[in-house]
Write a structure and sequence with these properties.
The protein is of the alpha/beta class and 423 residues long. The protein is built from 25 helices and nine strands. Bound molecules: iron/sulfur cluster (SF4) (2 copies).
Amino acid sequence: MPQTLLATDRFPLADADKCVQCGLCLPHCPTYRKSGDENESPRGRIALMRAMIRNELPLTPRLETHLDRCLSCRNCEAACPAQVPYGRLVDDARAVVAANRPETWGRRVLWRWAVDGLLVHPDRLRGVGRLLRGYQRSGLQAIMRGSGLLRLLGLAAVEAQLPPLPKLKRFATVYPVQDAARGEVALFVGCIARIVDQPTIDAAIRILNKMGYSVHVPPAQNCCGAVHHHAGDRQGAQRLIAQNVNAFKPTEDMPIITLASGCGAMLLEYGQHVPGREATDFGLRLHDFGAFVEDHHAALLKNTATYLDGVAVHDPCSLRNVMHSAKKTHKLLSRMSTTKITKLADHATCCGAAGIYFLTQPTMSEQLRHDTLQAIRHSGCHTVVTSNIGCALHLAAGIASQHLDVKVIHPAILIDRVLRLKG
Ligand code: SF4
Ligand code: SF4
């Protein structure tokens, strides 16, 4: 008889039982497509979760691996006729796993030092960002990359994702416009993105100002909590949710704009993770940047159609399956271009970034990125536009490793360039 597991009470078995095992989700699951293994499919994982919760199957490292290999891309949810809320199931199953497994040294280091010790401390992150900028500019980066030491230390994958860092700054609390004809918006700037992607944030602020919005950047905001949530750390996620809900309270009448769909998918569903009206209202105020511009301000781009040959759009899973804004971003970019903006072939799959998946599941992550890089090659593009910083860093590192002459940018950067070009 398997051991009785702790913390199974919150697992929504009734939702898992909605799965009628039809298998329609299987061809949409990136890990099943790669492995051909039922245990690496949505249907198989749901069966494993049910058996684990019902105490019919012991929680073994193998079972844990099958759950960990899920990307949380939620392609299966989009394909499921029975509306099984797979994303919630896998996150809740991981919370059960987290409550029952022994803590290993590696996990303690990753979690206590990198996640709880750094990711959720914006000041410490900024300090590390400054050190990393020094590391890049001093030439030490080139020496370390050439020495093979990064690989020995297990840091090669994460270091490869580091883009050239600009001079880091603190964001102002508000970027006002004289004639705020449209009103005010609040901007979510995330944790890693505010260090590694400041040009995108600057571009978005310029565009929103140009549209007639004053832009507020609540200073007490923090990491969205997605890394904690998807790893089964409910308490850690709830702490960050409470912090962000409070941080955005002074802007409570304003739409909240996010520039990273991976964060956006988490922010949108705050109401599912903590009880109370405030968290739900937070999600209701949330907009992806591209969708917000397309929905409200397409007129701004009316006379800007430009020759944007060689631009391809990458659809992050979080934008497509959770924020449901991928079509809007494509429409927006198409509106700006006199030539066809292509979507990458097989765009409805996952590039393998998936939060920290590229670190925890490097083999599957690499296989999936390989396919996306093939699609980039075949498209013949010189610029890939994506709305998620995690995908952008992951793809850019792969592009660099293959010596392709392709840039990866956020839609805000492209729109900003076009608007500047058109004066
Ligand atoms: S499509 Fe839905 S109901 Fe069918 S097997 Fe997949 S999760 Fe279950
Ligand atoms: S979330 Fe993605 S990887 Fe996980 S089971 Fe569903 S389709 Fe497969």
